[in-house]
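Priority: medium. Attachment 1 of 2:
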């Protein structure tokens, strides 16, 4: 029975609203700043072989949320939360691109290969809506999917830098703190991680909406 007052129904409606927002090049984020907290999604259309199944599909590579300050009601009161969150991902991708350029490596990440969508939401609704989108798309960079976690990891603290290198940083080397001499290699090789990605896409085929 369809219940329009069910919180899950609202979460689905908000998630669906994100999906129909304009898709923008990720590099455009550097020239435009905006207010608001809520939802965002990253899309990949590059040449990294393991991600070929999602090229040209409606399936994002990552879905995230940006939480507002307590009591915020308007986008301006919420601050530039989405913008800042996505900017962190931009910086990570740029570090990978710069590193691979220096090393002469091809076929890894480039900022120009990414697009994003975002939706400013009323404070509080971003949590359930993010969970809905992760359940719907199973994005491979989301930790909930258990495949290529690590893009949202920070290395500011010494104890964080000393942790095992994430699968994301293993596939996409370049973040300086993740290659620190105290950072332990991931227990899985690049080939083993790519095999997990392939298995994931077999279990959860990308969606074409």
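Attachment 2 of 2:
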């Amino acid at each position: 029975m369809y219940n329009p007052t069910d919180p899950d129904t609202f979460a689905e409606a908000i998630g669906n609203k994100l999906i129909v927002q304009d898709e923008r090049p990720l590099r455009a984020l550097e020239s435009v700043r905006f207010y608001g907290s809520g939802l965002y999604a990253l899309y990949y259309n590059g040449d990294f072989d393991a991600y070929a199944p999602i090229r040209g599909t409606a399936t994002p590579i990552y879905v995230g949320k940006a939480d507002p300050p307590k009591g915020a009601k308007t986008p301006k009161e919420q601050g530039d939360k989405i913008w800042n969150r996505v900017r962190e991902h931009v910086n990570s991708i740029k570090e990978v691109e710069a590193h691979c350029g220096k090393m002469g490596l091809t076929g890894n990440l480039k900022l120009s290969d990414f697009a994003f969508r975002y939706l400013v939401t009323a404070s509080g609704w971003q949590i359930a809506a993010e969970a809905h989108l992760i359940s719907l798309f199973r994005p491979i960079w989301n930790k909930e999917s258990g495949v290529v976690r690590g893009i949202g990891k920070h290395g500011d603290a010494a104890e964080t830098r000393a942790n095992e290198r994430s699968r994301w940083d293993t596939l996409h080397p370049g973040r300086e703190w993740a290659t620190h001499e105290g950072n332990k290699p991931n227990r899985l090789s690049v080939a083993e991680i790519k095999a997990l990605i392939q298995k994931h896409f077999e279990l959860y085929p990308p969606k074409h909406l």
